[in-house]
Structure formats: structure tokens, C-alpha cells
Amino acid sequence: MSSLQAIQGRFNALLSHNVAIPSQWPTPTLTPSLAAKLLQRLDSLRLFGHAYPLLTNLTHGRYRPIDLLDFAWRHELHGVCIHLLDGEERSLSRMNDEELHVVARRAEELGLAIHLELSSTAHTDVEEAVRIAQVMGVRNIRVYSRYEGRLSAVMERIETDLRYLAQLADRYDLHFDFEQHEELKSTEIATLLRSVDHPRINALFDFGNMINACEKPLQALQNLAPHIRQVHMKGVRIVPEPSGFGHYGVLQGSAEDELPGARMLFELLMLGEDTPQVTAFILEQENHYPAPAFRMEDEEEDPFIPYRAMSDTPLPPGFTVEQMMKGEERWAINQIAYVRGVLRELRVLAECFLNEPHVQ
What we know:
single chain, alpha/beta, 8-stranded parallel barrel
């Protein structure tokens, strides 16, 4: 076997891991242009922390939103995504303007970006998020909708909301990224974004939420690809149910993780022709997070979408709050190490390929 064949073989092994039907998603062939583009994307990648992996610490422990910035700085990340309600009494939503300024100044001192997250597209909720963003000098807000009703009616309400968000985005120099969050399929979100057709209204792609909408990971990524600006990365064990699939959060890259995570990471890195399309790769380790099926294989043409509560990770059986808090920090660091390991492997393979003497 030649050295080029060996490099391609390692590349194939990495990117085909957990790909359900490899023949449907063949690994790209390494070429000088692909390897060079991959190295450029690795150099410009922006890796963010997230509040959710440390939610028990934020709610019950020593962590405050400002402490997430110190965690991100210690681990050489580029920023942090913080939900406005994470930490409850200590959350950003409960802070006065001066307290919000303190958090923003700390981020500036550390050279870190802050992206905000909101689990709503309702006008009053979004307006409050925009107010906080203006106080903190934040320009990126993640949203998703939690409406109940027939799919057609829910889609109409969301489109109306997104058009209002587009007005706010232009007025306040903001970007809103709509997450596929278990209740809508990627094709439905893509339809909404094409209809709104606004450069400041895009998508956040989550590694596992398509499972609950009865979709496959790589197909969902392909469906949303033209619109993706941010990414939530995590590990998932797929949980079959009578007419659909739920998921359970596990350590990303562990033996339990059933997602084609390395392949999704590669595909997302390569989005965008001349410049990277994805602006933030966000580490959202959700160990022990349970999420039941939301869309069903046998659903009717215009299914009823039930109300969806905000995400929550109940205390797992056998855990105390103290054990959960200690575990969260360890699991978050575990994810940083795993993702950086995949990124290093991609870099080594691209560099080895380009350094081969017979590569033109």
C-alpha cells in the first residue's frame, strides 16, 4: 500500500465512523485543493463553550455566568454561549444593566465572544433578549419556537416571528440563528428560512435533535447546509420508540455515542466556498439528557405539534447534586479533549497528504 493510500484509508476510517450507510455517504477523496481548504478551515475555526453542560453548577453550585468566561479562557476557547435563563436566580435575565456590563467587560478583557440563547421566538421574549444583547454588546442570538398546534399553523406563526426578527436584526445589527430543536424537521426549517430570505436570519444545527424529529443526521445536515451559521456539538445514544426515536445524551466520542460526529464536523467545517460559513462550533456536552421522540414515522400529513417545554436534565438515578456538579465539569473538559483530538487528526491527515512528494 502506498503512503497516499494509507492516508486516504485513515481519512476514510475517521469520517465513516457511525455513518449508517457508507455507500450513501462516501468519504471525499483527498486532493490538494480539499486538503488545503481543510487546513485553512481548521486555522480559522472558532470553538465555543456553552452554559448547558454546566447547568447544575449554574443552578446549585459555585458557577455564575461570568465564571463560564473564565472556564472558556482556561481551556483556550473563543467564546461562550449563554442561555438567558441558565442559572435561574443568577441568570443573565435577572441581572441589572450594571451587572450585565460587568459580564461583558470580563469577556472583553479575556478576548472572548458571547453569544446569547433564547428558547422562544415570541415577540416579547425576543425583545427582552435584544435589550440584553444591546446592553452587553452581543450580536448573535439563538432562538427556537415552542408553539402548539397543527404543523401548518405552527409554521405560519414561526414565519411571522422570523420576519419580525429580521426587522430587529436590521435595526440593531444582530444575527438570529433558528435551531432545529426536535419538533421541526430540517426541511421545514429550510423552507421557512428560504421564505423569509434574510441574510441575518439563519440556522443553528444541533448534532442530535434531528433524531427526535425522525430524521437521519447527515441527511438533516445536508438539508440545512445552505443556512447553517452555528453548531451545537454533542454525543447521543439513539433510543428507539414504537413510532419514532428519542435520544439520550452521552459523552461525545464515547462508545455509547451513535452519531457520525467526525463526519458532521468535517462537513460543517467545509461549508462556504471562499470563507467559512459556520461562525461558531459550540461544545454542548449533554450527558444524561433525556429527549423523547417528537415526530413520528406514521404521523399524518399535517401532524399536531404538542407544546415543548424547555430542555432540562433531571438528576440521573444514583446521582446526588454534588456528584452531578463534579461530573459536569469533568464531562465538559472531556468533550474539549475529544473534539480537539478529531481536529488534530484532520490536520495531520491534510498535512501528510500535502507533504507527499508526488502530490501536485
